[in-house]
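Weekly structure sync - notes
Attendees: PM, LS, DV (DV joined late)
Agenda: review two folding runs queued last week.

Item 1: First target. Sequence and structure tokens pasted below for the record.
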Amino acid sequence: MTMIFGIPMQALFGQLLIGLINGSFYALLSLGLAIIFGLLRMINFAHGAQYMLGAFAAYLLLTFAGIGYWPALILAPLIVGVVGAVIERLFLRRLYDLDPLYGLLFTFGLALAIEGTFRYLYGSSGQPYATPPALAGGTNLGFMFLPIYRGWVVIVSLVVCIGTWLLIEKTKLGAYLRAATENSTLVQVFGVNVPVLLTFTYGLGVALAAFAGVLAAPVYQVSPLMGSNIIIVVFAVVVVGGMGSIMGAIVTGYMLGIAEGLTKVFYPEASNTVIFVIMAIVLLIRPAGLFGRDA
């Protein structure tokens, strides 16, 4: 058996794959958080609950409407994104001119309410969600066995992350979104409906979380606790990447996922804390994060 640094090659690449999968979810979730914070200046503590809502939306679409994975991959993020837009219009909009702490407290309470409702309805145990037949099974790459669905998660998350970055950084819509956060009055002078832009921004960030939830449903069980189990790590990813940095969220998400996976090979006892250790080191050296702008 081929060994690398005294570790069987299959075990090493297997953990690297797990790190890439976790990094895919970290990148999608931290990207949504970075968009909301970067453009709205609001810390969305409900992000984990909205990730869970995406998974449950796919599960409920299948259970009650017979809608399978592929349509749910589009419908569930749209549904949860629209719900997020309604929340922004009715509640969050009233908090923009207040201390950011009010937005954090509101979204934290919203997360508790959503999670509590689903725990009451479905309990704490998870609900299974089958892998779509087209992505079932795996392929032998010689040096490791690659489950097809896991490979799909890595590829599609990377495509969505890059597409979102291009939307925000390279299009006229993205320019309007960025300008609206800097000088909303000036943007309105040019005939742009700033309140609609802000609603779209929050809905987009929430939809990205829900999309990650649909991708996660066949990998993990659909559980009311799945959001609370990942959101603290995602906040650490955002801090390391730089609060509000779109590219920082993407790169750091994958990077820390891989670091976590490799730590499970070389020092398993530290795998649950390595991301927070990296966060502490980065903040000591560069308080604004790897991709953040110094004040």
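Item 2: Second target, run right after the first with the same settings.
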Amino acid sequence: MKHSLPMSALAAAALALALASGPVMSQPLDIKPAAQPPAPKTSQRAIPLPPARPPGLGMPRVDAAAAPAPAAVVAATNEPRPTPAAKPSRPSAPLSKPEAVERLNAYFNGFATLQGDFIQFAADGRRFEGKIYVQRPGKMRFEYRPPVTMEVIADGTSVAIRDKKLATQDLYSIGQTPLKFLLKEHMDLARDSTVTGVSTKGDILSVKIEDRSTLGGTSKITLNFDLTANELRQWVVIDPQGYETSVSLYNLDTQRRPDQKNFVINYERVL
């Protein structure tokens, strides 16, 4: 049996964006979307604006090799210094909206599998870490490191939220989750969502989209993409209740195929 998932929980489950206030969610909450974003709450599901990120996470990187050598080192040798290797070229001017959409579409459609590490920031400043596994179309797993006992699995049809400590599992339709940019077989941001803004800061391209098909209303998603590394660095989601959470990615590998056991849901547990 599938359940209706409150959107603050939906963002947490589908995108591993927000856990409960403690490392274990003891029971599901039935939260109806408010007409307007509520004021910050102290309940388990309340996820106001996230804290500041660690310095440099998802931001333009400084190439140490390109830094000028100390004067003492320069004076100690008459040999010419080697010219630092040139970085991959990036647009000399900010990308237009069509160019930005095309760049992200090419990235998402350029891989079938992805795995790596993620860092999630809760509203109260706590930090959660884990592994992410994706196999397009439709399969995904967020595996949290202890002491968190939650895991989120998509098998191509459903999304399961498991609590290994409590031995519970809830199922939700994958079509109600804002997972298109990770799980769709062929991604077209302009067709599948509404692109509301594009900006570039240093190496980072930020594209803002809105997905109106998620349960409870419209989810607003910001994708932060590293133009130099050609990798997705971070996404930030504001769910229909107005709560904002974020996930940053690193150590991404699009060549190795994930173990298929990562995407298995035990439906007998629900029955």
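Discussion on item 2: The longest strand covers residues 244-253.
Action: LS to circulate a short write-up before next sync.
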